[in-house]
Amino acid sequence: MKIGILSLQGAVREHRNLLHRLGVETVDVLYPEDLHGINGLILPGGESTTAGKLMVRYGLLEPIADLGRKGLPVFGTCTGMILLSKHINRSAQYRLGLMDTYVERNAFGRQLDSFEADMSVPVLGEQPYHTVFIRAPYIEKADENVEVLLRYQGKIIFARQDKLLATAFHPELTDDTRVHEYFLHLVN
To answer: Scanning 2, 7, 61, 183, which has its CA 20 to 30 A from the CA of 18?
Structure first.
């Protein structure tokens, strides 16, 4: 199994290290040719407007969107959640538009409002999961074909649509591999 990691900005190294701990081969995706032969793709956190512009500049936006429409498993964390969404409130920024969701950017506040919390996530088992939020978005509304996996204060922060997975938090910034393992199950 080979997982691509969009490597234009963000927590690329952290995702790579976590996947390597799970014995998974990774490839840094910087150009369209890097997408060949991957079984899944991770869109890491970063800054969504910049990530979208860089995806256009490097010719990645349409190829990734096309692969996603054809069923390639894609996992977006924070910025990745925004890029996966079809609708971004008050924004016309570039996006992949694959998930039937409406996303609110920087929804929990500014950088100073970033936080961590242990949460019960039923799809990950009984042990609480430590979540890390940094200028995090949330899904304000999701169509009925989107499975809500976790809410926080009534806001959707973890969701799945077919082989698309999105988190508002940063699982790559913890030692807990369960969210990545959940994604790898979608890949298989």
So the answer is: 61
Give the pLDDT score at 138: 94
The pair of three-digit structure tokens given for residue 107, joined into one six-digit string: 């929804």
Q: Is 144 a catalytic residue?
A: no
Q: Give the residue among 97, 28, 77, 95 at the shortest CA–CA distance from 180.
A: 77
Rounded CA-CA distance 132/112 in Å is 13
170 catalytically annotated: yes
Mean pLDDT in residue range 163-174: 97
Catalytic residue among 14, 15, 104, 172: 172
- Pairing of the two strands 115-119 and 129-133: antiparallel
User: Using alpha carbons only, what angle is made at residue 88 by residues 150 and 101, rounded to the nearest 5 degrees?
Assistant: 40
Q: Which of 14, 78, 104, 180 is catalytic?
A: 78
How far, in Å, CA of 69 to CA of 141, rounded?
21
Task: Give the pTM.
Answer: 0.95
